[in-house]
Amino acid sequence: SGDLATRLTGDVGRLQEVVSTAVLPLAAHVLTVAGVIVVMCVIEWRLALVAMAVLPLFWLSTQKLGKEIRRTARRERDRHGEMGAIATEAIGSIRVVQSLGGEHTHDRRFAGRNLSSLKEGVRGKRLAAQLLGMADVYIALGTAILLWYGATLVMKGELELTTLLVFFFYHKNMTRPIRNVAKYSGRTAKAMASAERIVELLDNAPTIDEDAGAGEPPDDIETIRFRDVRFAYEPGTSAIDGITFEACRGQVTALVGSSGAGKSTLMSLLLRLYDVTEGEILADGHPLRTFRVASWRRRIAVVPQETTLFAASIRDNIGFGLPDVSDERIHEAARIAGADEFIRRLPEGYDTMIGERGSTLSEGQKQRLAIARAAVR
After folding, report:
1. How many angstroms separate the CA atoms of 374 and 368, rounded?
2. Which residues of the chain carry a pLDDT beneath 50?
3. Is 225 helix (H, G, I), strand (E, B) or coil?
């Protein structure tokens, strides 16, 4: 989650900044160079060819160093993501870390990623400076060759001195944008590394598909049937192997098994967090794929083993995912879960903000809110 947050904030922010401050100026400078070249060709095509002789070398150097800058920036952003993941992990389990004396372990992991990120950042700065320096070298080299060739033409009487001076005026107007192209190319290459990390998220296709014409599930479901269901998280490693059972309305159906037997996986399949590998799950005889995913999930209430609460009010946590739920339903759900009494003792009652992950509540109180959240559905 820390790496995802880094991609959604740091990488998106960097890309947005570069698009507004580098990409548009880069395009403007490229167009300026192209326009000046056209004018120079009109003034004296021979000098224009000499002036453009270094441009292929400049382009090749920009491409080569740009790729290296992008690879370096990618490694730097990856280390930033790992730092975010370590920090999120440590903060989210701060009590466990402190109780086990693991602060130094996390410190070392974070410091190691931070140092690696710093090294990659410094390397990227050096490469960008090298790109800018090479642009200066090519500009100086091109100017020297142009001056020599122009002076030769003047001495031979093939070119007027005033024409040479006018040409050099335009040539100077071309060199400044070329230098800026080198500067902005380095920044754009860094942004491309962030763009790659963002595209990786966007390219992850949804793993849950709906049938064409998927509709609403029934309001009152009588039976849920798992029929010869098989599922594997990874090919060759079966998590569920041919299970069949039926759960009927008004009855308690208990799934009993050792740790790792697949009980939580079955609930994930029922919620369509994953789709079965083989077999099917039926609701009143209809395959789950024939229902809209969002509508189906609203029909199911789950109290997970690990309680997850949000940095919002108690009211919003109980009614999470149900924007139109009434206060009466929320209060009734809290009473069913045995949470109404302690909620009303809080300073602001149901409007009390509980902090990130419910940090201001005890584990028992958090569990009761999770039960209330299931009951309100």
Report:
1. 10
2. none
3. strand
Distance CA 171, CA 54 (A): 13
Q: Which token pair is 339?
A: 């949470």
Distance, in Å, from the CA atom of 338 to the CA atom of 343, rounded to the nearest integer, reads 10
Q: What is the DSSP string of 227-293?
A: EEEEEEEETTEEEEEEEEEEEETTS-------TTSSHHHHHHHHTTSS--SEEEEEETTEEGGGB-H
**Which amino acid appears at position 164 of this protein?**
L
- Render pLDDT for 263-311 as a digit per residue (tens, 0 to 9): 888 888 888 888 888 888 888 888 888 888 888 888 887 777 777 777 7
Instruction: Provide the 8-state DSSP code for 159.
Output: S
| Nearest 10 degrees: Cα torsion 158, 160, 161, 164 | -80
Question: 366, 364, 371: which is closest to 356 by C-alpha?
Answer: 366
Which position has the token pair 């230098």?
179
Q: How many Å apart are CA 121 and CA 192, to the nearest integer?
A: 15
d(CA 357, CA 366) in angstroms, rounded, equals 9
Question: Hunting for tokens 């509709």 — which residue is that?
Answer: 215
CA–CA separation, 353 and 346 (whole Å): 10
Give the percent of the chain with pLDDT over 70.
98
Helices 24-43/161-202 angle, 10° precision: 150
Residue 240's φ and ψ, nearest 5 degrees, are: -130, 130
Half-sphere exposure of 234 (CA within 13 A, CB side): 1
- What is the reported pTM? 0.68
- Which residue has tokens 């960097």? 14
User: How far apart are alpha carbons 152 and 158 in whole angstroms?
Assistant: 9
Token digits of residue 63: 């491409």
C-alpha dihedral, 275 to 276 to 282 to 286, nearest 10°: 60
Q: Tell me what pLDDT residue 122 has.
A: 92
| Helix/strand/coil for 111 | helix
Exposure of 299 in the CB half-sphere (CA atoms within 13 A)? 19
